[in-house]
Amino acid sequence: MLSLTLRQLRQDGLSTRTAYAGVPPRVEYELTPLGRGLHEIVTSLIGWAADHHDEIRGHHGQAAAGT
Fold first, then answer.
1. Is the peptide bond before 33 cis (omega within 30 degrees of 0)?
2. CA nearest to 30, candidates 13, 17, 11
3. What is this structure's pTM?
4. Count of alpha carbons within 13 Å of 33, Cβ hemisphere only?
């Protein structure tokens, strides 16, 4: 699953892959400028979710109570 995800990120232009010949072989992945831009957005969304976690959970409790 990880290999598939990494391949898709490369196909979408969000990351690059560099393979190094050696013993043992080594591969590095890096975000492209497009990927770094998405990372900033996702990080912001995670921050928003963390800031509003209690409020969101409160609404779940209200929905379960039927209010």
1. no
2. 17
3. 0.71
4. 0
Q: Give dist(CA 3, CA 10) in Å, integer.
A: 11
Half-sphere exposure of 19 (CA within 13 A, CB side): 2
By C-alpha distance, which of 19, 43, 41 is closest to 29?
Answer: 19
Greatest alpha-carbon pair distance for the chain in Å reads 63
- pLDDT at residue 65, rounded to an integer: 73
pLDDT tens-place values along the chain, 67 residues long: 999 999 999 999 999 999 999 999 999 999 999 999 999 999 999 999 999 999 999 988 777 777 6
Helix, coil or strand: residue 24: coil
